[in-house]
Amino acid sequence: xxxxxxxxxxxxxxxxxxxHLVTKATAAAVHEAPEAKLMSVAARDVTRARAVEPERAYDxxxxxxxxxxxxxxYIALSNDLHLxxxxxxxxxxxxxxxxxxxxxxxxxxxxAFDAAAASGLLLVEATWALWHPRIKRIVELVRGGTxxxxxxxxxxxxxxxxxxxxxxxxxxxxxxxxxxxRYTCLPMQPPT
Length: 192
Description:
By secondary structure, this protein is an alpha/beta fold. The chain has seven helices and six strands, in the order βαβαβαβαβαβαα.
């Protein structure tokens, strides 16, 4: 069923950052989805932004937020920049999908969610597994009493990454582990 069948236009997306996730997965997914259109991408190197084929490419993150065609922003910057750009995006009237971890602390996350609630906009951390049909089905089975009271749950989720045309990155768990733990191992420097 087509998104436009209901008379809705595709959601205009703007990306902040054009790193590995954007170039190897997210941009391809947006280009493939009839419900989405990649309006603008900003990166420190505008050549990288152009490489994912948005309608407009910038070397300024603020320019994406100023683009009236952008309704939702995907934040794919270094973790220490997430909060600033979440708040700026919400202030600019944009819905936000932010890479994980959304912020560097529980207090910062609360601040971000409070700002989203105050603005009436959606703020979501990019934990895609939560939205997967299999997870929804598990929730239905638990709530419906089909499998009884859950005392403990262990699960494994896999997918075929070698299927032709698959835009998912061909990396393992060690790809994300260093990025996720570097902030607990290294001294933090404020962004300049």
